[in-house]
Amino acid sequence: MKYYDNILNKCQSDFTQKNPFVYKFSTQKNSISSETKDFEFNCTGSASLGARKSVGKIKVVLLSLHRVITLSDNLIQILNSDNLQLIPNIKLKNIITFAVSNKFTQGASIDMCVSTKRNKLQIYRVDRTNINLINEISVQDPIISIGMDEFGILACSKTTYFAYKSNLNSDRRSTDSLQTIFTLQDPSIMACFTTITPGEYLLNGPNIGITTTLAGTSERAPIMFITQPNDFIYSHPYLIVLVKDYIHIYSYLDDQLKQQMPLKSCQTLINIPQRNANTILINTKDNICLLESLSINQQIDQLLDTYRLQEALTLAESNCSPIEQRRTNSLIISTKKRIGLIEFNALNVIRALNLFDDINLDFHEIMIQIPNFLPLNSPWPDMDENMKSQYILWLNAFGDYMTKRSEEFSCQSRRIVLKEYSNDDTFPGTWIIGKYILERNLDRSWEFSIAKWILEQNEEELAVKIFIDKYQSESNNDLFNTNSVMNLLKPYPVALKNYLEDAVFKLMIETDEVHTILVNIYLDQIISKSSSDNDEETRCKLQEFLVKSNSYRIQSVLHRINQTKYFKREVALLYGKMNDFQQAFHVLVDELEDFEYAANYCMALSHDKSIDDRKIVAHVLFDVFLASLDKHPKEITEALLCLLGNNKVEFNFIEILKRLPSNWPISSLQTILSRAMRTCAYEERAAKLELSLNRLQNEKLNTKLAKLKRANVTVHEYRRCKQCLKQFYETSCVIYQDGSQVHVHCAK
Question: Other CB atoms closer than 10 Å to residue 747's CB: what's the count?
């Protein structure tokens, strides 16, 4: 198992100059050499320090300062990190080592602690142009290593570890502020330490690593090293340990050695924190190397693949510092889910369901995985009885889990809504949800919310189908009433048009708002479209709708159409809808000169009307044709002859024949005269037949009346009125068909 990649590309340079230099490099992964993951190093600047010995320590302080602090020949100098220019008048002499705090103070400054040859620890405050002494502590032995954070200072000599808690209100020159934490008895052990977290440190001891605070307390057992370290550095959650000719990597979570890599002549370790992985900078006698850690996800994958489940979970939890955020951390949730599925597959049901319960895993996700867990390769009856009982217990436990969580999960958002299945090739698509809704009668509010979500997924056709299929009434209590659906579909013009057409022609909804909006949509499409074919198709639908519908607001539509001269035919249709036949036919005949359409519109207006009303419509068109005869004699003559010969149009031919032009030849009127004679004969016969039927009915009634008059009815003092139950005192009464008698005034 690998936690860190092998040592990467090495940077070599000529360091043979007499004076020490500071070099600035930029690093970039070499995309060509993908197998070794080499880095490319480019020198972007250099500066001479003017000292005699090589650089012993260097620290880059970015953020607001942009400074590089160097220690060479016991001399501290500070450079500008951007251009490597020395900052004048900032030098400290006789310095053994130094450390910089991780906390910036107010005014773009930072605290720095130095160890001097005079057995002093000095604390300075460094800003862009000045360095000021703020505290000084006397020590007995020279300090060779220092660590500094917001809690205080940890330092060590060759044999002793010291701690100091900052107190800037104390005297600048104090002698008893250091506290001894631990003393090494073996001079062969190199004193070194690393910071685990601010205020928590790990000290090097005799084959052990001792965790401590500045107060000298520890709540953690020591780490047992296989080989005595020469140096180490902490890179969460691992401890990188430098031993002779090797680098050992320990996990700080379980104190176990995880990996070792050979590397000779290694001198220092520097941690370079990055966003998703840590990189360790290592320098040997001749080279500078990079040690790059695997990402936390790769490490967890390797642990799960080798069934080291608890170790994987511990690693994931260590990546989330605040404990209260662990229930919402995505890495921890995904790791627990994967561990739960592994345990579920291994029939460890109790542990698996506890993990599922802990992360509120939807049981539908577990159901998807069950086919992968069952022993499908072997028939169920042929299984061992012990194995069969285990599977039965396994399924029963899962059934109990589903029953326990069913009500809770029914109130949660579906995983499809959260688009967690967007990359799942086995998911058939959103249409399967619409099919489920259409085939069942579910909660109306739930159906409406799902249809709304489907619409938001740009499945407009499917959403419209649901809205139409689930419609019940126009009641405000019904979520699927047309007003609420139309408001929802306003941002989707195509879906709105399709919905309104289905509402009008399939659901037969006759509300004026629905019909008027559909008319306006047709008008908008005609005005906006540039293609003549599409324009004519939509216009034909509009004209047909204007003729057949009786529910749209005529005046509102007429007002809009009159704003342009493009819709003259539609204006004529609207006049006809208002029974202004004269104006309607005037537009069609005189303005548009569309005689055939006028005749067809006459038949459309006559539909479902009485004979007298149909004659009124036909005579109006006849009058308009006659008025335009001189303007278009040939076309009008043909239109009149065709109109008069149409059996679907009713005329009073006696009146029509009187008004026909006298110059028309008899031959052209042959068809009209034949139809007129047939019509007149039919009307005469119908009138005679109707008269005969009325006469027969009248005779029957007279006969019945005579029989009633001849019938004798005896009225005496014992007979009572059927209505008021009183006696008769008059000689006249009213007799009902059943033979009962009532007073005259009661019958009234």
Answer: 14
